Amino acid sequence: MNKSLKMIRKASEPANQQEREQPLKKIQDNVQEAAHAETSPKPVRRRRAIAFQFGLFLLIIAISILIFLAKRIAFFPLDLEITRTFQNITNPFVSGLMSIVSWAGNSPQAFIIPVVIIGFLYGFGLRWEAIASLSNVVIGEVTNLLLKIAIHRPRPASGLIHVNSNFGSYSFTSGHVMFYVGFFGFMCFLAFTLFKPSWKRNLLLIIFGAHILLVGASRIYLGAHWASDVLGAYLLGGLVLIGFILFYRWGKKRYFIHQPVAEGGNQAS
């Protein structure tokens, strides 16, 4: 009797296994079909990849030229003209807005804000997002510091323009702009890719995006940096941002694709 039951069980096991695998296979087929439908044809992807690589090459060339010039020239005539044009705007609202925009990049806010945001990401189960964000902040700050030390470009002098405060360190590149583009830009990327469309996601994109767009003007208006310092920071910060998005996507696929998400968090893509 026992032998008969064992034989029946053994005979039914393959059938049960096939039944269990069928729903999974169906899901995999559906995912592949959906991915195929949303994916551009191979020639289009190749052209886009070439265009992206060419754009990245031009970005690196532009940064290299600007670094070379900033090392040898304290400021350009156009820098002085742009700053004086900005500072001729004496509207109290503009003055207040420029100070508010720079506030998040001042000490100790520039340390506290990333710690709080990274803590929220980790607490909501987004472990890789938290790790990538922390790496983004550290490497961005170290890169900016090393570049300042290497170039030794002096800050704008109060005899030439109005300097809002006694700013420390060197001028090239703007640490505020690099921090905003690198870190806040990465937060925009995460918010756009991880969260479902909602007013909350739109609000985050507006807040982070507005800071990125306005911080360059803010640093010039306050006399903290020349326009070429700001331009260099936007270019270098953009390069850092691209690098960390690629790094994030690389690590996500290999190590954190099945990471748990705490209740109330959003499932990572």
Ends distance = 52 Å
Q: Tell me the radius of gyration.
A: 26 Å
Main sheet attributes: strand count, strand direction, barrel closure:
none
* Helix proportion: over 70%
State the helix count. 9
Q: Based on DSSP secondary structure assignment, what is the total number of beta strands?
A: 0
The stretches of 5 or more residues where confidence is low (pLDDT under 50) are: 260-269
- Which fold name fills CATH's third level, the topology of the domain at 77-255? Vanadium-containing Chloroperoxidase, domain 1
Write structural notes for this entry.
The protein is mainly α. It has a domain at 77-255: Vanadium-containing Chloroperoxidase, domain 1 (Up-down Bundle). The chain has helices at 2-38, 42-72, 77-87, 92-103, 109-123, 127-151, 175-194, 199-221, 227-255. α4 crosses α8 and α7 runs antiparallel to α8 (199-221). The radius of gyration is 26 Å and the shape is globular. The model is unreliable at 260-269 (pLDDT under 50).
